[in-house]
Amino acid sequence: MREKYRVAVLTASDRSAAGLREDVSGPTIVNAFASIPGFTVVAQIILPDDQAGLSAKMQQLCDSGAVDLILTTGGTGLAPRDQMPEATLAIAQRLVPGIAEALRYNSLQITKRGMLSRGVAVIRNQTLIINLPGSPKAVKESLDYLVDQLPHALGLLQERPAENQQHE
Length: 168
Description:
Layout: E1 5-12, H1 14-17, H2 25-34, E2 39-47, H3 51-64, E3 69-73, H4 84-91, E4 94-95, H5 97-108, E5 121-124, E6 127-132, H6 136-146, H7 150-157, H8 161-165
Parallel strand pairs: 1-2, 1-3, 3-6
Antiparallel strand pairs: 4-5, 5-6
Helix pairs in contact: 2-6, 3-4, 5-6
């Protein structure tokens, strides 16, 4: 049995992928997980806001068994190029609507703009994929709200008895 959950961080940004703007949100996720026991970031990827490319990368990560959790940032808004939810849903085997609902609820406690997030959470094989917002501030707020539930969620998904028993 693996000791740590393996996390991939996927940033969707045309400008960051082209080297025109520094990705700040992806490193925010990586830095947050550096101090969270039981998790290790194994991949940090920046791709353009392209539905096919995003779907293909997430599918490859899930189907390879290389990661337990994919956290995405960016591409969840209303702009025409924001394609992360569609890319995620295209490869989903099961939906986890409660996570996206909870993240939006938490965001709405901070700003009314939280209602504009279209992020989703899904399962493919034994990998959980969660779309986070694109701003570093919103990413941090979302992680602060979410992170303590991840070991239980991943433990259930992967049938890891230790994580399941402590919450029964």
